[in-house]
Specification:
The complex is a heterodimer of chains A (about 260) and B (about 350). Chain A is an all-alpha fold and about 260 residues long. Chain A is about 75% helix and about 0% strand. By secondary structure, chain B is α+β, with helices and mostly antiparallel strands. The chains are: A mainly alpha (about 260), B alpha+beta (about 350). The interface between A and B is medium-sized, with 21 and 27 residues. The site of magnesium ion has 2 residues of chain B, from α1.
Chain lengths: ~260, ~350
């Protein structure tokens, strides 16, 4: 009885969370000229329009490579920070955690403005893509950090000691023992970093160089003057891309390993 | 084959002194146990020998060579951890191969060594299993195999049997000891279980509060404990207060107490009139008829299958623990005699 109730409750929450996405995806198949729901007839018309829209493609490409670079940098720094946090910080453990989580706790717009001041103060300005990457790394770092930290909490330091007594130096210990055993956390964190970087708006909007557009910025620009289902088609594609990233990672890198 | 010598080793964690100036010489192929209560510094000592911790002062030598500056990965030590620390993402064979890969051994030799060691620990058919597919006892044997396959100079074991159930633990004692003898490797074994230390070791090192309280063969530790603390830690003991009557010329002394005047070895500080604590183990006492021994009555008894534990009350009210084989049983309240061979009395300390 209570189990049924719980199931229904969960389904309702999922419905509530997923409904907007479903609406957007359905709206993207609209055959009418305006972004409405329910769609007036089904067609791939707006996908065709979108596939011929150079501007959106450029934005998608920009977003993809920025997300890729961000993911790599953020995964490396975040993993190192997590290792320090869990195994070496000692009394500083809590301080390190709060510092690493700060970008998540502060409003994004505040972080963006602070960064903007920062890059102009130190003189790198926003002529290059560098500030934007810094911003993306900063806000994706907490996600890598918490995921890797969680994995590390169940990492037994005696594995490292065992490897050491068997003759493994620091690099071997990391590559052959620690990294494989915290892989789920690192991959999970990297996934978050990629998806969030792909999706983030405020930071990108403030820190982008002139003439550069990521997908969210391009969509925003577009929606200010147009209201066609093409926007829904673009959004849907980004939903599909995200799903694809998750599925491919799960399939080829594997989030599960032999443990216990 | 390696001789280990430890000299005045001290290890401080901040202001806390975990190991306090211990000196110890371990012979080639010897099996040494560090025995002591939890927190007495056994693991720390082992970690310093292995190179996981840097000693605050003192020296460690393997075959005369100072190894204090040698990092753990270069010390050539086989270590077995309490929780086994098997790599969960590698098979049994993978775990064993790891140390050999670090030594860049040719593949063929690697495989023959792994096969040999797996046979020794009776796990040849489990080479392709993952650790989570093995029982606790099997994991324990893999851990031992992984430490031995690299043919290290020294084998270190930190409470390796603590996570096993009682029956398996006793089997593993014999198993580990036999393998150690066969390989002939110098071994340091850490445990808080006195029976384990007694049955397995050539020599036992008893530690309290970071210091060595006594070291010697299991029999020496048990029969001739250096202090009340040691006597209590390595087994049950009756402690009796007696008075020194006379110091005899032959290195002995006469003491008087509930058992009349007896002769024991003389100890430091003993002089006529001083009070001393004298120990006697419960199983050193025989129960005989009241006329043949010190008269007593049975106060209570506990039956444990192979042994019988009695508590006997002397005329002056002193309670004495006695352990016998339950061949002859005595009822509570029954009058008995306590017979103690003269050489089973052991004086411990002068108290007043
Ligand atoms: N990393 C550490 N930091 C601070 N104190 C420690 C550390 N490791 C052990 N100690 C302390 O040192 C003492 C000895 O510990 P240990 O060698 O683990 O004892 P044992 O193995 O005999 O139980 C204990 O009081 C313990 O609290
Ligand atoms: Mg310990």
């Amino acid at each position: 009885m209570s189990k049924t109730f719980f199931t229904i409750f969960c389904l309702l929450i999922y419905a509530f969370l997923l409904a907007p996405i479903v609406v957007v995806v359905l709206a993207s198949f609209n055959s009418g000229a305006f972004l409405t729901f329910p769609p007036q007839g089904l067609s791939l018309r707006w996908y065709v329009v979108f596939f011929h829209n150079e501007v959106f493609w450029r934005a998608i490409k920009t977003s993809l490579w920025i997300a890729a670079v961000t993911t790599v940098i953020s995964s490396i720094i975040g993993t190192m920070a997590a290792i320090y946090h869990v195994q070496f910080a000692g009394k500083l453990k809590e301080t390190v955690r709060v510092a690493m989580m700060a970008p998540l706790l502060l409003p994004e717009v505040l972080t963006a403005i602070a960064l903007l001041f920062f890059v102009y103060t130190i003189g790198i300005g926003t002529q290059t893509v560098l500030p934007l990457i810094i911003g993306h790394v900063l806000i994706t770092l907490p996600f890598v950090f918490i995921n890797v930290s969680a994995s590390l909490e169940s990492y037994d330091v005696s594995w490292t000691m065992a490897a050491r007594s068997l003759g493994a130096g620091p690099f071997t210990r990391f590559w052959r023992i620690m990294l494989p055993l915290i892989k789920p956390g690192v991959i999970g964190g990297a996934l978050f970093a990629f998806i969030i970087s792909f999706d983030v708006f405020t930071i990108s909007f403030m820190l982008k160089s002139v003439g550069m557009s990521t997908l969210p910025i391009q969509l925003y620009d577009y929606l200010r003057t147009n209201f066609t289902p093409e926007a829904a088609a673009v959004s849907s594609l980004s939903v599909f891309l995200t799903l694809l990233v998750v599925v491919v990672t799960e399939k080829f890198l594997g989030l599960k390993i032999h443990r216990f | 084959m390696t001789e280990v010598s430890i000299e005045r080793l001290t290890m401080d964690y901040g202001v806390h002194r975990a190991v306090d100036g211990i000196s110890l010489r371990i012979r080639n192929g010897e099996f040494i146990s560090l025995l002591g209560p939890s927190g007495c510094g056994k693991t720390t000592t082992l970690k310093v020998i292995a190179g996981f911790e840097h000693a605050s002062s003192g020296a460690i030598r393997f075959d005369g060579n100072d190894v204090m500056q040698v990092p753990a990965e270069k010390r050539d030590i086989g270590m077995v951890f309490q929780n086994y620390a098997l790599f969960p993402h590698m098979t049994v064979a993978g775990n064993l191969a790891f140390g050999l890969e670090m030594r860049k051994l040719p593949k063929a030799e690697m495989q023959s060594r792994i096969a040999k060691v797996l046979e020794m620990v009776q796990l040849s058919s489990h080479a392709d299993r993952y650790p989570n597919q093995l029982s606790g006892g099997q994991q324990q044997r893999v851990a031992l195999a992984r430490a031995l396959v690299i043919e290290p100079k020294i084998l270190l074991l930190d409470e390796p049997l603590a996570n096993l159930d009682a029956k398996l633990r006793e089997e593993m004692r014999v198993f580990i000891r036999e393998i150690q003898r066969r390989v002939g490797i110098t071994t340091v074994y850490v445990t808080h279980d006195q029976a384990e230390a007694m049955t397995m070791s050539d020599r036992v090192v008893v530690m309290f509060g970071g210091k060595i309280a006594q070291m010697g063969t299991p029999a020496e530790i048990y029969d001739q404990p250096a202090s009340v603390e040691v006597a209590k830690f390595v087994g049950q003991v009756n402690l009796l207060r007696m008075k020194v009557e006379a110091i005899t010329g032959d290195g002995g002394m006469d003491v008087s107490g509930p058992f009349g005047v007896i002769k024991v070895k003389s100890i430091e500080g003993a002089a006529p009139g001083r009070a001393v604590t004298v120990a006697v183990r419960p199983e050193a006492i025989d129960l005989v008829s009241p006329s043949e021994g010190q008269a007593a009555t049975i106060a209570s008894s506990y039956y444990s299958g192979s042994l019988m534990d009695y508590r006997a009350r002397l005329a002056d009210g002193t309670l004495i623990d006695v352990q016998t084989f339950p061949r002859q049983r005595f009822a509570d309240g029954e009058a008995v005699g306590l017979s103690i061979p003269a050489d089973r009395w052991w004086p411990l300390e002068v108290t007043a």
